[in-house]
Design a protein that fits this description.
By secondary structure, the protein is an alpha+beta fold. The chain has three domains: about 5-85, Winged helix-like DNA-binding domain superfamily/Winged helix DNA-binding domain (Arc Repressor Mutant, subunit A), CATH 1.10.10.10; about 95-155 and about 260-295, Periplasmic binding protein-like II (D-Maltodextrin-Binding Protein, domain 2), CATH 3.40.190.10; about 165-255, D-Maltodextrin-Binding Protein, domain 2. It contains nine helices and ten strands. The strands form three sheets. Strands 4-3-5-10-6 form a five-stranded mixed sheet. The chain has a three-stranded antiparallel sheet with strand order 8-7-9. Strands 1-2 form a two-stranded antiparallel ribbon. Helix 5 (about 110-115) links the parallel strand 3 (about 95-100) and strand 4 (about 125-130).
Length: about 300
């Protein structure tokens, strides 16, 4: 059996994720007939059916489910290899740090100071993204290390927890619920999060907006503007709430909403001394923050 090509895997993943040959072809910017031929050629090459096709729907077979999981991993590895090779050949290498702006528990400035004092450090470069995008940036080689909110998709990644803090709900100050000192998720029935999902399901703050959501906002400025108008509510770690006091927004604790844990994450196969130095710095700073004020050691 000949090895599968990267092109074939990309085509297969598009069909497997869309479960529609027409939409997959549009996503790949190609005509549908050659896409269908490629999938049939893959099935003959592998000797198994990857999809169940009817006039109404396309479904993955058991073999297709297995290939989808492994194909995603393989494509991520190919993409990461290309990105890392380009950076390795740079005349001015840097440590690329993935994070969501302001979602660092207030630790980033101290982490960078501590990291910069290490003799193995490289100049840092921040790779800013939306909620939940950091793990994929690490897998694809777009970043070397990241600050992420747990739980997250940890495939191919190692991590260390840094701090845990309460999550508050941000409401319009005029919302009747803002008059209460503490809420439960049931109290949020009928209200929506930035990605359009129901707030009473208690989805964690780190999730990225869902594809096809009727309304989504990815940066905090947009999110808080929508909160102030009463269009949405937003789950924010306590450190974010402290950074963004706004007269049009009230923050309230939610009794059955889990705490947010911030972690530092990096690819499992990372061998960079700079990555190790950043992880050490993050853990050192977080440990010092966790100690009572009178017992904190000098960094």
């Amino acid at each position: 059996m000949n090895d599968l090509e990267v092109r074939q895997l990309r085509y297969f993943v598009a069909v497997a994720e869309e479960l529609h040959f027409g939409r997959a072809a549009s996503r790949l910017d190609m005509a549908q007939p050659p896409l269908s031929r490629t999938i049939r050629d893959m099935e003959r090459q592998l000797g198994v059916a990857l999809f169940e096709r009817t006039t109404r729907q396309v479904k993955l077979t058991a073999a297709g489910e297995v290939l989808l999981r492994d194909a995603r991993t393989a494509l991520e590895a190919v993409t990461a290899a290309a990105h890392r090779a380009r950076r390795a050949g740079s005349v001015s290498p840097r440590l690329r740090i993935a994070l969501k702006a302001d979602v660092d528990g207030g630790l980033l400035p101290q982490i960078l100071d501590t990291y910069g004092a290490d003799e193995t450090s490289l100049p840092p470069e921040l790779v800013l993204g939306g909620f939940g995008e950091q793990p994929q940036a690490l897998r694809e080689g777009l970043a070397d290390v990241g600050l992420v909110l747990c739980p997250f998709d940890s495939r191919g990644l190692d991590s260390e927890s840094l701090l845990t803090e309460p999550v508050l709900v941000a409401l319009a100050a005029a919302d009747p619920l803002a008059a209460r000192t503490r809420l439960s998720l049931d109290d949020l029935a009928g209200r929506e999060l930035p990605d359009g999902s129901p707030a009473d399901r208690g989805r964690p703050v780190e999730h990225a907006p869902q594809p096809g959501a009727a309304r989504s906002a990815s940066n905090l400025s947009e999110i808080f503007s929508l909160v102030e108008t009463g269009s949405i509510v937003f789950f924010a770690p306590a450190s974010v709430a402290r950074r963004y006091p706004r007269p049009g927004i009230s923050y309230r604790p939610v009794s059955d909403l889990p705490d947010a844990t911030l972690a530092v994450a990096w690819p499992q196969d990372a061998r960079s001394p700079a990555v190790a130095a950043f992880v050490r710095a993050a853990c050192t700073v977080a440990a010092a923050q966790a100690e009572p004020p009178g017992q904190r050691a000098t960094l």
